[in-house]
């Protein structure tokens, strides 16, 4: 939450900061704000080179830097690269009066370098902004992670995964997909979780790639699909009607007999093909061959839904997407959460939703974390929402209890203009 930091007394008496900006006015403005927040020492530099010299001389490094982008001698971008090269890891803000896209490009560069960037901000600076940055510096000192870890997580050894599959430790978790107008549950996405007695709950980004690389992905998918369909059949028998979405790796789509296999599994659990949605990441569409496209066409002919997962991240072309009979467009969470704050995300989100609507696709927004995200999606006419605001992925046993508590929240989720619907 970035609300309500009192703009007083957030600084330690001993703290120092460094403001790097070629404008005297901007440096004085930042200096005055830092002083009002209780910062004892405000160092100033007019450009990157001067900042590097100063940092080399100071007996005690500053706890925070504010870095302007456009400066003579050495600009902000080069300064950040130099800091990275020299291993100087002082938390910093990038401040610029230039367009948002430029600031975001610099943010992306700094994050890629693994630099302790607190954020890119538009000038003029405010006391609230600097107070929040000072507070986050303390988090850095106490070792709290500043940014989501970049790079890939440690993969699990294939032998361990194989054993876990054999022992039935890889289980389906379920995250609800709800109607944006009413909040009513329409379905669940199935997400694999490895529940290990020693490792705890291992998320899929640590084992899906291993499974794909070592020929275990088909077994994993079959096991998850079988367990999840059993769960759905059981919920149905208790009067809970809904659809279920399974994630399919592109490798699984190449399995001979896949269409028949999924149909047979559905039939065995007494489920209708229309209850199943298969999620395929946008990124994988690029590499589909004629065989794979045939498989997708046949799955669709049998009545299963096909969803484009993580839409907006995959570099697919319109032409590639148009070849596949998708029924659902799932917009990646990076365009959903924070769209109410950032104009460029809002434009992308709204355009994607409009396109989905015109193509007759169900639109799903993932990563709905706040009520503000939710209200924006209502305004933009999205069909379904999924995210932490509604529920985290949960074990099958937890769903009935969650549904009860969710019912109590429905009035606060309903679209203000939506007519009341019976649940
Ligand atoms: O919670 P989350 O961390 O569950 O999922 C991370 C990623 O792992 C998601 O992109 C999701 O699509 C993928 N994933 C989750 N379960 C499965 C699965 O059963 N099969 C495949 N192929 N991917 C999955
Ligand atoms: O298949 P896909 O990449 O869509 O998988 C969804 C992933 O997103 C899972 O890892 C799930 O745990 C995660 N997730 C679900 N809801 C939210 C949310 O509201 N915020 C964030 N940050 N992640 C979410
Ligand atoms: Mn998915």
Automatic annotation (TrEMBL):
Pfam families: EAL, Response_reg. Keywords: Phosphoprotein. Residues 154-407 form the EAL domain. The keyword Phosphoprotein applies. The modification 4-aspartylphosphate is found at residue 68. Residues 16-138 form the Response regulatory domain. This is EAL domain-containing response regulator. It comes from Aquincola tertiaricarbonis.
